[in-house]
Amino acid sequence: MSKRAFNFCAGPAALPEAVLQRAQAELLDWQGKGLSVMEMSHRSDEYVAIAEKAEQDLRDLMAIPSHYKVLFLQGGASQQFAEIPLNLLPEGGSADYIETGIWSKKSVEEARRYGQVNLAASGKDSEFRAIPPQDQWRLDPKAAYLHYASNETIGGVQFDWIPQAGDVPLVADMSSDILSRPVDVSKFGLIYAGAQKNIGPSGLVVVIVREDLLGKARAACPTMLNYKIAADNGSMYNTPATFSWYLSGLVFEWLKEQGGVAAMEQRNRAKKELLYGYIDGSGFYANPIATPDRSWMNVPFRLPDERLDKPFLVGAEARGLLNLKGHRSVGGMRASLYNAVGLEAVEALVAYMAEFEKERG
Amino acid sequence: MSKRAFNFCAGPAALPEAVLQRAQAELLDWQGKGLSVMEMSHRSDEYVAIAEKAEQDLRDLMAIPSHYKVLFLQGGASQQFAEIPLNLLPEGGSADYIETGIWSKKSVEEARRYGQVNLAASGKDSEFRAIPPQDQWRLDPKAAYLHYASNETIGGVQFDWIPQAGDVPLVADMSSDILSRPVDVSKFGLIYAGAQKNIGPSGLVVVIVREDLLGKARAACPTMLNYKIAADNGSMYNTPATFSWYLSGLVFEWLKEQGGVAAMEQRNRAKKELLYGYIDGSGFYANPIATPDRSWMNVPFRLPDERLDKPFLVGAEARGLLNLKGHRSVGGMRASLYNAVGLEAVEALVAYMAEFEKERG
To answer: CA B266 to CA B347: how far, in whole Å?
Structure first.
């Protein structure tokens, strides 16, 4: 078996090695039961215990208040882009959206198919290199909800503050920064996150929703997209993505063992300080994002000449530094520093960047 | 490590041991690349090759004509219950449905939320113990499509024939019998199947759809539920359920090695003949389904006295015969005999049934 690489993929992303080892050990025979978790009925005592423990561990990690439901659904964040208006935006109503990059833009486009969207603020004027400050937002106090993406995976901007939504339910796409640091769930009406960055395998999306927001779905909402039906059935209206849910549970256990989200915040801070610090000091690499809005999770950076991109990537791969190529819409490089990417991975990356700069700079 | 059990679960169901062993071997390091399939970008060369090979192997196995698209989606068959009318039933149009049990009934209920359903036939009069013959169906020649479930997982009835739909597109829920024997795909407009019986892990649904049926989705259809968008993006409009897709690909490879669906038909025939033959000959166990309509995949059976159910199940479990309890809506027992359940499992079950009958009969 070859060495495990350092994987900076934006998603599906690196998983903790200890989690994969445990999944591997029990893949054919979970706890001596003679079958894989993948082969268990979702209604079996064994699987229900796995699913409930995963939910409880997530509740513990995020200190989710008891009047919130935690749902383990399918279809990723992109399906949520429709599911949110179908459940929360009444016919004839309006919702506020903040546009800070490609993902929030997609959420706006999908919501517009279901009703009035008030684009309360956009980072467009800064080419999405900064998050518009809240005092410039044009919020509608009668909005059905206020939606934003706490971190833009592609652009590399991140809110380091929680918007003030008053009585309007605050809805956040936390796909790429959930569990990376503490967040006060009680400030939100709904939080959602595709699993494939900080949670587990793709094919799962976690929705944390305040109970009073349930039961308002439109008549045309598909049963499988109705939050209340999912909540009333413990996310088992039909067969859920059982293995992804189980594996996410192993990640939650691992996070607790590591000291929870407070410990993750410390680590993630150290990681991003090391990388941004190196980039800013180099004069060779550059990150375009306004300093206070820089993402801790996704660090896009450029080399001084595009023709260096390919040799940089080839050299990186030879050193076991994988998936550093930037998103096709942005170009350049991107290093994603999710929870499962250790400080040693960032150290190895910075060492290689320094080596490359020395050689080519 | 304890012995692998014989797993008769209706779904999520047994997977081939060889497939699990391979997934286990490469779980932390796929082909020396230093990362798990779960950790790969769905847009990486490696993953795209995995995904394309899975699709090609499925095309080979089912001899899917080139004018059909194969989609790897999320949300299970239950989400398809909405997705089908949202894509194929025009506003003001009508669709024909055949009701043969709990699953087709659910598909009818969901379709009614989107338009006119003509219940062309129902097995209700026979308490769903038989499939109404086609000469009794009240088909609408102008129907947008004709929908049926080729196998009812809970009731244990199965079509051993393909309905004649004329020019009306035939739509089949094959969740619980896809790949169990050859089927002429060219007779269908659309075939769908939740993965967790004969394909792979839950959280994936395969849709095989004739190209001319694409592009007719309603304006209100969520982007993620639009077949054309999925087809145009190779099922990667957003991040798909990558690990489930990969594992399904391993199952397809295994099926090809076993001789494909023709070999599966032989095995499955031998399995069901052994079990039904034993039940019918016993005078102790009983299966209520009309003989020509008996499912090869799901065999419900009863003991002469409900009070024997528990001791039967306890004894079965002690012998490593798992998940024989019938669905809560039906009671009694149910043995699911999907492709990954070998003849030796059915032999072990029959031997135990004979032993139990001798002791308690």
So the answer is: 16
Q: What is the pLDDT of residues A331-353, one digit of tens each?
A: 999 999 999 999 999 999 999 99
Query: B222 vs A82: CB contact, 8 Å cut-off?
Result: yes
Q: Which residues of A touch B342 (CB under 8 A)?
A: none
Pairing of strands B94-99, B146-149: parallel
What is this structure's pTM?
A: 0.97
- In chain A, what percentage of residues exceed pLDDT 70? 99
Torsion of CA B103, B107, B109, B112, to 10 degrees: -160
- Residue A75 has its nearest CB partner, among B28, B39, B75, at B75
Chain B residues with CB under 8 Å of A27 CB are 20, 23-24, 27
Q: What is the residue type of A39? A: E
Closest-approach residue (CA) in chain B for A45: B323
Tell me what pLDDT residue B105 has.
Answer: 98
Residue in A closest to B14 by C-alpha = A39
Count of C-beta atoms within a 10 Å radius of residue B310 = 10
Q: Mean pLDDT over all residues of chain A?
A: 97
**ipTM of the modeled complex:** 0.97
Residues on chain A touching B15 (C-beta within 8 angstroms):
36, 38-39
How far apart are alpha carbons B29 and A38 in whole angstroms? 20
Q: Binding residue per annotation — A43?
A: yes
**Contact criterion met (CB < 8 Å) for B241 and A240:** no
Query: Which of 3.80.30.20, 3.90.1150.10, 3.40.1180.10, 3.30.450.40 would CATH assign to domain B260-359?
Result: 3.90.1150.10
Domain boundaries, chain B: 18-257, 260-359
Entry field: residues in chain A = 361
Whether B18-257 shares its CATH topology with B260-359 is answered no
Percentage of chain B exceeding pLDDT 70: 99
What CATH code is assigned to B18-257? 3.40.640.10
Q: Is A114 helix (H, G, I), strand (E, B) or coil?
A: coil
CB contact under 8 A, A81 and B223: yes
**Does position B263 have pLDDT exceeding 60, yes or no?**
yes
Which pLDDT does position B1 carry in this prediction? Answer: 39
Q: Average pLDDT of chain B?
A: 97
Closest CA to B204 of A217, A354, A257, A76: A76
DSSP B66: T
